[in-house]
Design a protein that fits this description.
The chain is mainly alpha-helical and 166 residues long. The longest helix is centred in the middle third of the chain and has 27 residues.
Length: 166
């Protein structure tokens, strides 16, 4: 992540960047702060209904990702963390982990309430939810709507009736 690359992405000359920032480190710090602000806006207030919370998070995060795909692409690669210093890189990891923890907590609570399958470890369910979210954001030409994507996730997560052994 160079000044030239950043300037090109935002549509200004290299020198213009340094009228607003003293260093690349300040640019990276500002990018991380903006990244965190955008992601925090997608967290719903937690309720006693984990699947409602998870749905709201999923739909908000998907909307953000579709409106501003570059913001969420930062979650799925290490470029921002690599460009940052140690403290800022840890901040990026903490921001990403906050999202994963939210989803993990919703899934765990939903499992405890019998709302999602108990046959699959929560960590695997986490991969499934975040994988669908990632695919829905990164796929440029998808005609799958947000509600259809969420409904599909819900179908996969749903507990299945056990077959009778009698």
């Amino acid at each position: 992540m160079t000044a030239a690359e950043v300037a090109k992405r935002v549509g200004v000359a290299d020198a213009t960047l340094f009228r607003h920032f003293e260093s690349m480190q300040q640019i990276v710090a500002a990018a991380i702060a903006r990244f965190e602000q955008r992601l925090l806006s997608t967290f719903p207030t937690q309720t006693d209904h984990p699947m409602v919370d998870l749905r709201e998070f999923f739909l908000r995060r998907l909307a953000l990702g579709r409106q501003q795909p570059l913001v969420l692409r930062l979650i799925f690669n290490d470029r921002l963390a690599e460009a940052a210093g140690d403290a800022e890189a840890e901040s990026v990891r903490t921001i990403v982990e906050r999202s994963l923890s939210f989803v993990r907590d919703c899934l765990l609570r939903a499992q405890q309430q019998g709302l999602v399958t108990r046959d699959v470890p929560v960590e695997v369910l986490l991969w499934m939810v975040t994988g669908v979210l990632r695919g829905a954001i990164l796929t440029r030409y998808s005609n799958v709507g947000a509600d259809v994507a969420w409904h599909s996730v819900q179908l996969v997560l749903s507990p299945r009736p056990r077959e009778s052994t009698t």
